[in-house]
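Contributing new records

If you add data, match the layout below exactly. Sequence lines come first and carry their own label; structure lines follow with theirs. Keep one chain per record. Anything else will be rejected by the validation script.
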Amino acid sequence: MVSMLLHMAVSVGVGVFACSLFNGAKGKLVGISSASVFALLALNSQAVVYSVQQLTLMATFCYVWALVCYIQARRAKNALNTLLWVALCSGLFIAGLLIKQNIVTLPLAILLAELCFFGSWSRRLIGLYGGICIVFLSLLLWVSEFNLMRSLVLLDSTLRESTDIARLDYLRTQMLVLWDYIAKFFYPVALQLEHEFQLQTAWQTKNLVGLAAMTAFVLLAWWQRRRLPLVSFGVLFYFVAHLVESSVLPIRDLAFEHRTYLPNIGLTLAVVGVLQAICQKFQSRLIFGASFILFGGWVAASALALEKRVTLWTDPIAFYKNEVALVKGNPRVYANLGAKLVEGGHCLEAMGYFTHAMSLYEKQHQANIGLQPELIQNYIECLREFGIDDKANAYELWLLEQVRAPLRRAQILVQRSVYLMDKKAFEDALPLLEEAVSLDSKNYPAVMNLAISKANLGQLDSAEQLFQQAIEIKPGDPLALDMLRQLQKMPSQQNL
């Protein structure tokens, strides 16, 4: 519900922004058309339905309404109103920066709006961007203690999510990814969560064609910015909004459809701008009617694709079976389907998908597919359910060698210790649980199992303190309270 409300607020923002660029009925028509198209785009479904992407929605909300505030400031009639709108725009920009990094392109979007809709450089604009550059460079030098080489190293480490991918390789890959995004904007078939793009380590014909086509579109949009300002702004905005996640800043996952959510505003405005230009140029009712029929048909088709995609998201097993049908070489797809089958009580069926996922992980250990320990943990549970302990132990120990993130490592240690405790190997479980608690002192299963292990090893005072700690984590927890009462009654040689 929260995601849907955010999406509607963003869609309204797109409409208000488009409407504010034109006067009268024309502005209202452009605004309503833009809001409707963006709201019903099937390609936006991943950002809206996939709950972990709420940050994308929140950042885009700040971005689009900051643009609205800028246009209002630009057209304000007095200095006080201008100042208020600029302050609101700045506040939304700062809030967006705290949410997600791709809002950093907002100043460039404002520059595009200035050049496409107002048509001139102003001294204030030049001063604003000069000031931003000076502040940025000053902060960078200050953080690096005025060491130029350290500044460059710091800048490089900040502007990358993955150190395993060369910037140029990532750029070459995005020349293919971006065109896939654009195709799915207009023809939303085979939408998917995971993709199979391979990292492009050398220039090939397809990469060069993709780069040349993008360059041509950008140059054409720039050339037509006076005649077709809305179309030009939309096209240029699309590529500017992709700069953070689809240029030379390497990210381990090469493609995700939710990354198109903000840039899709640009293509939405461009489509509406084309329709507007056709209606202005051709006065024929036939052409006018045909244009609106084609436009309405495309929007309706997108809405149907959106409804189908949202329905698929509501059934996790059907969703990931669809993913498996579309993506054959990505291990996460098979592992995710296995995890959903486990949750549905179909562990036997899940085993085959987990086994295939692990074989793909092993084949692609140098590929850009991030390890997801929780999926392998689900596989381990399945293996243990069927008594395949040796294989489960091997994967569990391998995970402990690979995973260093404190919270995730603590969960793996707890899983390993529970298996040992079931075997009455409390002494072996004890150091694992102690490490888990040291990594995550709020991990209730780790604290509880450590308390039980210590109680069974006769360390009653320590166990009592841990049970009390567990009750602090989950106040009133009946299991911890019952264990504590049993501990306080039992002789020192008795085990829980």
